Amino acid sequence: MAVRRRGDAWQADFMVKGTRYRETFDNEVDAKKWEIDVKAALETGRPLPGKNNGRSESGHKIVTLGQLFEHVKKTHWKLKRSAETLIQSGKQCVDILGTSFEVKDFSRYQYDEIISHLSDEELSNATINRKLAAMSVMVRAAVEIGALGRAPKVPLLEEGIGRTRFITEEEEVKILGLMQKLAMDDVRAFTVFALDTGGRLSAMLGLGWGDFGPDLSTVTYWKDKKSPPRTLPLSERAKVELRAIKERYPDNPGPFRMFRSKNGQLRTHWDRVMSTLKLDDVVIHTLRHTCASRLVQRGVDLRRVQQWMGHRSIQTTLRYAHLAPSDLLGMAGVLEQHVRTEQVAA
């Protein structure tokens, strides 16, 4: 058998009818087994067995997202015509999640994190989808080399929409009602809190009870991307939900930490509710859009909305400006004042 040691790994390297088959493994047993399985698959016409050791072709173990990015850059993107764009998109996704993020923990939740971040950067849905596509290439590569068990579905955004999607009050009633009916108390509490604070997903999941004021009167987002710390007053219904969570999970260090340890649970329940209500275009980040939209619709000036949402640039907040048409009412009357003045003088 053409199995030999290569550094701290074992490599199976052999030819069948002029085609070379080569793979690297952690131990000699797996390398020999892979060679036997490949030859058997070729003889019977079955699919070839894939890698299952989490190593790149160079034999280096891939553990972190940074390592995966370097692997994909060399093996998938380097020789493509659009290499520069693909590498830039992939790097942007990696920077959002962190180069030290462990590949084995990648789930649908990480896609949500990327969408949340890029949405705040005022990127169009089409542009965000291109970034997600680059990330999906890395995810599939991770599965191929055994660094990730399976590839989660990519939540591509609908393109060509000219407005920011937000949840109407009627939709909110249906969403919260169904969550209550299905006994999704934790998801319902998270939804109410997100609607009434507009927090980013990662910031909300990272909250500890020490980030709340006396009697849960306020919440402070200390670390929310590059936004400065901000303290927000809490609505009465948000306080009710938080108190209930404290009773259900007295030992939890924060209200939504249960979703960090089971990062797929929130997404699974959310998708179930939205699918049942046929609101497939409503994603978790829509809760943040809804909060900003309601503030503007109810007459809060854009500067204060910017501070509440933690937008670094007023340009991000301006995407909601069209939701305040009442600000323009009466403007024609102001312009007509000089006409009335001239008529009185005459």
From TrEMBL:
Coiled coil: none annotated. Keywords: DNA integration, DNA recombination. Residues 162-333 form the Tyr recombinase domain. InterPro entries: DNA_brk_join_enz, Integrase-like_cat_sf, Integrase_catalytic, Tyrosine_recombinase_XerCD. PROSITE patterns: TYR_RECOMBINASE. GO terms for molecular function: DNA binding. One of its GO terms (biological process) is DNA recombination. The keyword Cytoplasm does not apply. This is Tyrosine-type recombinase/integrase.
